[in-house]
Amino acid sequence: MKDWLRFSVAFWHSIRNDGSDPFGFPTKRWPWDAAPAGCEDPPPPIELAKRRMRAVFELMRKLGVDLWCFHDRDIAPRGDTLEETNANLDEIVEYAAQLQEGTDIRPLWGTAQLFAEPHYMHGAATSPSVDVFVRAAAQVKKAMDATARLGGENFNFWGGREGYAFLPTTELKTERTHAAMFFKMARDYWVKDLKQKGKPLLIEPKPQEPSKHQYDWDVGTTAGFLREFGLEKDFKLNVECNHATLAGHSCSHEIETAVAMDMLGGLDANTGDPQVGWDTDQFMTDGREAALVLSAIVRSKGFAPGGINFDAKTRRESTDVNDLLYAHIGGMDAMANGLKLAAKLVDPDGALERVKRERYSSWASELGAKIEKGKATLKELEKLALEADGEPAVGSGKQELADNIIAAVVG
Ligand code: XLS
Ligand code: NI
Ligand code: NI
Fold first, then answer.
1. Number of the ligand 1 atom closest to the C-alpha atom of 238
2. Does 189 share its domain with 50?
3. Is 213 a catalytic site residue?
4. Within a 10 A sphere around the Cβ of 286, how many other Cβ atoms?
5. Residue 127 belongs to a domain
6. Rounded to whole angstroms, how far apart are CA atoms 109 and 303?
7. At 44, is the secondary structure helix, strand, or coil?
8. Number of structural domains, the chain?
């Protein structure tokens, strides 16, 4: 199970989530953010950053999880200049490297936070300002250095503002091309300069939020984009369940699509709320959802060196530090149960696979193989159709039977 369920803790949701939302102030006061006992003033930002780093390592130790994910800006404080910001990041990365020493802990992935600063308001790689593009490139280079230094298994791109807020003033073709050039430079740096070949770069599709439209809308769109610009060999996709539902898909749909295109690189395991229209990033606890998500992953034989990142947060009203433990334990249990059920669902001798095989059984013929190999012609098939008696043979979809089989396994 450990090999299949390569869990990762998200630094931003676990350590930096203060419970604030667009309508409310912070609700959570974490012990690692408070001033130490007997001390009025909070410690200087770099010391606070180290306390937070110790806190995430303590959380990982307690959970028995040895992978973590971070944005450059959640782990280290900004300075007054880019140089100072970089120096802060270097100091924290070295500190994290020390904490990692002698353990199996390493990042599943690092990423650059290219969406929070005011200068990224129009986007980063897709900003109309070339100066902003340059700043974003510098930030990605540094975040890649940090990820490689810590032995990260992947580097992820999630571009919350890489899209548009207002189409009439947007040069869509220009912006998409700029994004592709940005990814090319990042790929070259990761593969050639940092020699990280074999550690896939990831793109995490999301349809919108915070931008009105993101160019990497969903798996299919992003895979098409990568192929359009010849980037499909070096990038894989990090599917996030809540992003799938925002795009009008199920999480299993996104995983199955990525698997079909041989592009599954990882999972941001979370779930949304059917009554709330945004990325609520809740821990996935629904057994059926977990089983279907895991079946898609098992069918694809897993995704190492990718993993399952808990890109999920405790709710605004959950203010105890123990809630973080309950949340991760629940999330891990749901995945573990899901894996057991998935093993039954995908069993080649199991009832569901039998239904599936039966649906496609007519293709297990000489003619089927010929068509699949691209060796048949329309003329030849027309001749066959004219020769055939009556209507073409087509069987029942057996969906009710399949529903019952799934219900019997998943409960
Ligand atoms: C936001 C994304 C983000 C990425 C990392 O919706 O899920 O958390 O995973 O930037
Ligand atoms: Ni995510
Ligand atoms: Ni998200």
1. 9
2. yes
3. no
4. 14
5. yes
6. 14
7. coil
8. 2
C-alpha of residue 111 to centroid of ligand 2, in Å: 10
335 shares its domain with 215: yes
Mutational pocket test of ligand 1: of 246, 268, 279, the residue with most ligand atoms within 8 Å of the beta carbon: 268
SS3 string of 96-112? HHHHHCCCCCEEEEEEC
| 240 CA from centroid of ligand 2 (Å) | 6
Whether residues 130 and 241 share a domain: the answer is: yes
Residues 180 and 97 in one domain: yes
CA distance 7 to 159: 23
Per-residue pLDDT of the chain (411 residues; tens, 9 = 90+): 999 999 999 999 999 999 999 999 999 999 999 877 788 788 899 999 999 999 999 999 999 999 999 999 999 999 999 999 999 999 999 999 999 999 999 999 999 999 999 999 999 999 999 999 999 999 999 999 999 999 999 999 999 999 999 999 999 999 999 999 999 999 999 999 999 999 999 999 999 999 999 999 999 999 999 999 999 999 999 999 999 999 999 999 999 999 999 999 999 999 999 898 889 999 999 999 999 999 999 988 887 679 999 999 999 999 999 999 999 999 999 999 999 999 999 999 999 999 999 999 999 999 999 999 999 999 999 999 999 999 999 999 999 999 999 999 998
Q: What are the Cα distances from residue 287, in Å, to 142, 294, 310, 411?
A: 40, 10, 16, 8
Which residue among 12, 240, 270, 310 has the greatest number of ligand 1 atoms within 8 angstroms of its CB, and so is best to mutate?
240
Active-site pick, 13, 71, 243, 249: 71
Cα dihedral 144, 147, 152, 155 sign:
negative
Centre of ligand 1 to C-alpha 336, Å, is: 23
Instruction: Looking at the structure, tell me whether residues 315 and 383 fall in a common domain.
Output: no
